[in-house]
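Input structure tokens:
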């Protein structure tokens, strides 16, 4: 068990034992009478054997006392949080979620741990958990704009358009150049049938976040739905270039080629996607080649 008090008591006992072990017992007669009762050579041997080493003993004591501070609640929550970040970077989202949850149990007001736990739940498709953790993050850190936009996207997916709009308006009021907020507003316009406004907001989002693969992908999907195939193709390719390990933009580009009956090019994209994410690519490929076999 990690308790500073027990560590201090243990260290204190060790120091006391060291002090007692260093007592020059062979000199007790000299201390009482002021006279040597031993030969000089023997006395020197006892002195050499019994000579204390205060610097070593005190160093051990101090190290043990200071070492106990590594078990404080703050250090424990940081240790859990750092572990969660390492798991998240390796895309081990379940393991990361456990560590972030541990951090929030140590400190229920640890806003960043709640936010990262929400990100894990989003990756795992655990929408209720994500909603709860994003709401908690906003309560603790109301200026975490990413938490607001993520929550807005969940509300949008749940067709709670008014609540989603409140989130995006709050972010844009405080952070007018927030690319994620413009993307959320674009998706909100699309969901309510405002196609032109949706395209305008998504293009603005891409201008603000030109290195964000997801924004290019979203814009390409909107353009494809609007029949703007050349521009959609350009943005699908840009999304794939920015995130070369993701099969999603590759599959989406293959679907676009399929819509235009450019089947050899579609096949090339799906074959490439198979190497990235077999299950998703095969399902999409089957949906595109089926018209060719009838």
């Amino acid at each position: 068990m990690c308790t500073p008090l027990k560590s201090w008591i243990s260290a204190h006992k060790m120091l006391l034992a060291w002090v007692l072990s260093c007592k020059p017992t062979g000199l007790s007669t000299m201390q009482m009478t002021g006279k040597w009762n031993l030969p000089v050579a023997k006395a020197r041997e006892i002195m050499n054997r019994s000579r204390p080493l205060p610097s070593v003993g005190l160093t051990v004591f101090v190290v043990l006392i200071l070492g106990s501070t590594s078990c404080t609640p703050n250090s424990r929550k940081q240790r859990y949080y750092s572990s969660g970040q390492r798991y998240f970077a390796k895309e081990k989202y379940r393991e990361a979620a456990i560590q972030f949850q541990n951090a929030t149990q140590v400190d229920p007001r640890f806003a960043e741990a709640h936010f990262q736990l929400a990100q894990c739940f989003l990756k795992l498709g655990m929408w209720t958990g994500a909603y709860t953790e994003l709401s908690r993050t906003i309560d603790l850190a109301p200026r975490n704009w990413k938490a607001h936009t993520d929550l807005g996207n969940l509300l949008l997916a749940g067709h709670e358009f008014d609540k989603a709009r409140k989130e995006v308006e709050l972010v844009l009021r405080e952070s007018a150049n927030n690319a994620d907020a413009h993307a959320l507003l674009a998706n909100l316009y699309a969901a309510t049938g405002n196609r032109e406004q949706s395209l305008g907001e998504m293009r603005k989002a891409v201008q603000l976040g030109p290195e964000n693969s997801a924004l290019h992908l979203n814009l390409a999907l909107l353009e494809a739905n609007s029949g703007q195939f050349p521009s959609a193709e350009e943005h699908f390719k840009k999304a794939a270039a920015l995130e070369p390990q993701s099969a999603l933009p590759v599959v989406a580009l293959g679907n676009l080629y399929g819509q235009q009956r450019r089947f050899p090019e579609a096949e090339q994209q799906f074959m490439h996607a198979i190497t990235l994410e077999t299950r998703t690519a095969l399902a999409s490929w089957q949906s595109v080649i089926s018209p060719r076999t009838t």
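Confidence is low (pLDDT under 50) at residues 15-40, 50-69. DSSP finds 17 helices and no strands in the chain.
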